[in-house]
Amino acid sequence: MNKTRLQQLQQLAGAPVEVVVIQLSDWVQAGGSRQPEAGDSVVREDGTLIAISADGEELEALRFPKGLTPLESELFRWVLQPSASRTAANGFTDTERSARRLGDWIEQSINGGDLRAEVPDRFELRNRLFDGMIPFLLISEQADDRELPYNELEKVFKSFISDEILLIPIREREWLVLGPDRLLAEVESAEEDVIEMDETKDALFSLATGLHQMFTEEWGGECHVAVGVPIIPTESLVQTVYGLRETIYLGRKFHMGVQVHLPWMIHLERLLNGIPESTRIRFMEEMMGRPDLFTEPETISTLDAFFTMDCNVSETAKRLYIHRNTLLYRLDKLKQETGLDVRSFNDAVLVRIMLLLYKVTKRK
Hints:
The chain is an alpha+beta fold and 364 residues long.
């Protein structure tokens, strides 16, 4: 930073200001982000530090001997931001600019591996993050390159979910939507005053399905939605986005054609995804009595329905619109060809794993 600009900052602060270089670890220890941006600030015993730039493990910052008011901190942030960033920000509303800043911080925290980072006090939207918010992550895959206007998205989401929603852009065509957990209060429990977890998950799935339908009808194109249980955003926002992003990735990888993804439904998929590919291939080679077993659409649809209905024969038959005896015939045929009876727990686990792995390997 040149001497003239430093003198201008001293005049604004009404106090001596010096440029210091500190270790990034010291910055983080004082409460700063692992991925600091120009204008970010932390308070230490020796004064207030405002980041100028980071280079590797070192951080250049301004040190103010006195504490700064929120207004002063925001002023110095604006002064230190690159001019291009300030120009771009001028095209946004205050809410959108604040939301994008928070989204950038979330993405930087994920990239830096700081999944347990808590939302710093410096963000204007922190006072709109209250305990018990429902997180939705939406990823759009539209064919064209047009960017959906933030204000239009926000308006539609508010009309569908609630006026209290908070829309946060994370990456291109990826949005985090936070809604109030009072939406779950509409789910009535016949026996309990407190909503059971199964009812909560059913309600969350319904909300996510409606959100997906609304988005596709309004803007077209394919999109994927993941939803989680209510969270405390100030404490777990980064980890939640990371988890929902992983949920969509695994859902798309193992379940083609599914657009609404639930974290509590992909535990096995997460485990299988972590197994080395060579191990997965060897397992399939050892277990597959018939290499063409899962190439039959009828076999795949029958097994998918059977596992979706928790291996219940009667409910599976209803879902497939076939007679119960027809389903039993198909399961017996599978047993004869593979030696595995999916009505047995151990065999059902093996076939479930084989089916998931086949869906991944067949596309390679």
